[in-house]
Design goal:
Blueprint lengths: L1 H31 L13 H20 L13 H20 L13 H20 L13 H20 L13 H13 L29 E3 L2 E2 L5 E2 L2 E3 L14
Antiparallel strand pairs: 1-4, 2-3
């Protein structure tokens, strides 16, 4: 009986020691994987604490280089690392500016040549926005006379397409020519005999709320229009400008 009792005590002690070892290894793993809020640094041995400090330093550097300035602890960087991070953040800001996110672009951080490139990109983005049928987002004052003429023509064609497709509430009849008004009236009279339009579905088959390649829902309808070269672009749905996330610059 005494032997059995001794074996039981030894078994319990072994289980307790194993559990403590497992907890210690789990804590070390948590620390090394970059979860400082969950890491119990006080339970680490001196050599483990050194390993964890190095891992946390590398994790912070990686976070800084990947373009997360709000999460980057700049005070923990060495001078050479700070230089690399500053360069990465500069390139990330330039990329954001060039991709058409003026609200996120820090223009004050651009060099004169970069500012020139960004201004040109923003001008082209505004022109594209105007031509694609976003009059509320189009800054007409930034268009050149020839661009304004192209936009006016595109808006006219988009309005005509809207009218012909039977969206009377969105059709601006005052912008139609007499012959266009006649075509719209004839189409309205014949609509009962023709196929019904499916609400929320555009000419090319895209539909309201359909996710794009980035997972952002398409909520803005673009009516069919003719490009300058005469090709016709079918009506479609697309995501609103500025809703797609900027690309995160990958560290070298």
């Amino acid at each position: 009986m005494k032997r059995l009792w001794v074996l039981t005590v030894l078994f319990i002690f072994s289980c307790s020691a194993f559990a403590q070892t497992s907890e210690h290894e789990q804590n070390l793993s948590t620390c090394l994987q970059g979860y400082p809020a969950l890491c119990e640094h006080s339970r680490l041995t001196p050599s483990e604490a050194s390993r964890v400090a190095e891992a946390e330093h590398e994790q912070n550097l990686s976070t800084c280089l990947q373009g997360y300035p709000a999460l980057c602890e700049h005070s923990r960087l060495t001078p050479s690392e700070a230089s690399r991070v500053a360069e990465a953040e500069h390139e990330q800001n330039l990329s954001t500016c060039l991709q058409g996110y003026p609200a996120l672009c820090e223009h004050s951080r651009l060099t004169p040549s970069e500012a020139s490139r960004v201004a040109e990109a923003e001008h082209e983005q505004n022109l594209s926005t105007c031509l694609q049928g976003y009059p509320a987002l189009c800054e007409h004052s930034r268009l050149t006379p020839s661009e304004a003429s192209r936009v006016a023509e595109a808006e006219h064609e988009q309005n005509l397409s809207t009218c012909l497709q039977g969206y009377s509430a969105l059709c601006d009849h005052s912008r139609l020519t007499p012959s266009e008004a006649s075509k719209v009236d004839a189409g309205a009279r014949a609509s009962t005999a023709g196929p019904l339009l499916v609400p929320g579905v555009a000419e090319n088959g895209s539909y309201y709320g359909e996710p794009n390649a980035n997972g952002v829902p398409k909520t803005v309808r673009v009516n069919g229009y003719y490009r300058k070269d005469g090709t016709y672009v079918r009506g479609h749905y697309r995501s609103a400008p500025g809703t797609n996330p900027p690309r995160v610059r990958k560290p070298h």
